[in-house]
Write a structure and sequence with these properties.
- There is one protein chain.
- By secondary structure, the chain is mainly α.
- The protein has one domain: Growth Hormone, Chain: A (Up-down Bundle).
- The chain is 77% helix and 0% strand.
- It has helices spanning 6-12, 15-44, 49-75, 79-99, 105-116, 121-132, 138-148, 151-167, 171-188, 191-195, 213-243, 248-267, 276-291, 299-311, 314-328, 334-363, 365-382.
- Helix 4 packs antiparallel against helix 5 (105-116) and helix 11 (213-243) runs antiparallel to helix 15 (314-328).
- The two termini are 22 Å apart.
- The mean pLDDT is 84.
- This is MFS transporter.
- Keywords: Membrane, Transmembrane, Transmembrane helix.
- It comes from Actinocatenispora sera.
- InterPro entries: MFS, MFS_dom, MFS_trans_sf.
- GO terms for molecular function: transmembrane transporter activity.
């Protein structure tokens, strides 16, 4: 079959690709649910936005810190045992958060546990793509992956709203715990994860993939992008409460995820870049352009529309990051390198969520949206210097 959708259709025509992508999305749903689930849990129990932002930030920070450690273990062993063990621990963390006081030390321990044990399904899937699709379909696979994961941020908030309505304030974190375990079990039982082994190398460098200075510069850019995304859920929730009710936040976040889903699907139609560094600069600037209008706070309908616009460029940023990591990671460190990308994004998300909670309490939602746009501009400036030589791959 010819045409712009041919590469994507070729990927989806492979049964292992569909199974692995679907299972990984199910297992990653807690990531799309956590921010709103924690916000509604804290607010439902009388906590303020600063506390909600802090706990959301701690979850993202825990995931960011735990991911590379899990990735390093996977590079040196196998995927299924590590993924399954981590999923069970993360589920315990979410379940504990549901029953302890949200303003106490136990809540901090629980949310850090849930975050640090987040199974690195994103990284594991991206390591497996070359075993599932031909080399000339990798760009389409990465683009499809980035697009599909936005389903998490459309479906995740809606699942949280439904769970909270049915179960109460703790419903979101409890459902996240169960879905995470189910998804990991489905992924880890597939043949490709069970047969994959890390690349054997000579002496292991203690810095792992971080010995590559160009990779570190890419990670800084992705950290700043994560900050931008971290500001959105807090700013959107505060603005929702201002214009009509806290439950509207789920619709704003879902609209943002829908925009990213549309942008990701559209990006699968774009040919692979010869100069990925240049493309990363452009799409990071487009992300900033998408966030700036939110500061105008144009009412309910306008904010839903602008939330869609703000999400359009994120999949392109992430897809460029995936492809660059594959080229920049030293041999034998690919899984860990991918987890560092997720880590950088997660740390930025954590700082963005925590800082925007404070900004919202002091200055209102507009401050969160302006901070998000500013850090997206910085993300583009970080990669002004080319990371890799221009080539036909991408």
């Amino acid at each position: 079959m010819n045409g712009p959708l041919a590469p994507t259709i070729a990927v989806l025509s492979r049964r292992p690709a569909v199974r692995l992508l679907g299972a990984s999305l199910l297992g990653r749903l807690p990531t799309g649910m956590a921010a709103l689930a924690v916000l509604l849990l804290v607010r439902g129990r009388g906590g303020d936005y600063a506390l909600a932002g802090l706990l959301s930030g701690l979850y993202a920070a825990g995931s960011a810190l735990g991911g590379p450690l899990l990735g390093r273990v996977i590079d040196r062993s196998r995927q299924p045992p590590v993924l399954l063990g981590a999923a069970l621990v993360a589920g315990v963390g979410f379940a504990a958060l549901a029953v302890v006081p949200v303003d106490g030390a136990l809540a901090i321990v629980a949310i850090l546990l849930a975050g640090a044990a987040t199974p690195p399904l994103e990284s594991c899937l991206r390591v497996l793509w070359p075993r599932v699709v031909p080399a000339d379909r990798l760009h389409a696979a990465y683009s499809l992956d980035a697009a599909a994961q936005e389903i998490l941020f459309v479906l995740g908030p809606l699942l949280v709203l439904g769970a909270v309505r049915l179960i109460g304030p703790a419903g979101g974190v409890l459902v996240a715990a169960g879905l995470g375990v189910l998804g990991v079990a489905a992924f880890a039982s597939a043949p490709q994860p069970r047969t994959w082994r890390g690349e054997r190398t000579g002496a292991r460098h203690p810095a792992g993939p971080l010995r590559s200075g160009r990779l570190v510069r890419l990670l800084v850019s992705l950290l700043l992008t994560g900050f931008t995304i971290g500001t959105f859920s807090v700013g959107a929730t505060a603005y929702a409460e201002h214009v009509g009710g806290r439950s509207l936040a789920g619709w704003f976040i879902a609209a943002n995820g829908l925009g990213a889903l549309l942008g990701g699907v559209g990006y699968t139609l774009v040919p692979a870049a010869r100069d990925l560094s240049a493309r990363l600069r452009v799409v990071a600037l487009l992300l900033a352009v998408g966030y700036l209008p939110l500061a105008a706070q144009p009412g309910l309908a306008g904010t839903i529309g602008l939330s869609v616009l703000a999400g359009l460029s994120l999949p392109a940023v992430l897809t460029c990051g995936f492809a660059l990591v594959e080229r920049l990671a030293p041999a034998g460190t690919v899984t860990e390198a991918f987890t560092w990308l997720v880590t950088a994004f997660g740390i930025g998300n954590a700082v963005g969520a925590a800082l925007s909670g404070t900004l919202v309490d002091r200055y209102g939602p507009v401050a969160a949206f302006l901070a998000g746009a500013g850090t997206a501009i910085l993300a583009a400036l970080t990669v002004l210097r080319r990371l890799v030589p221009a080539s036909p791959r991408g």
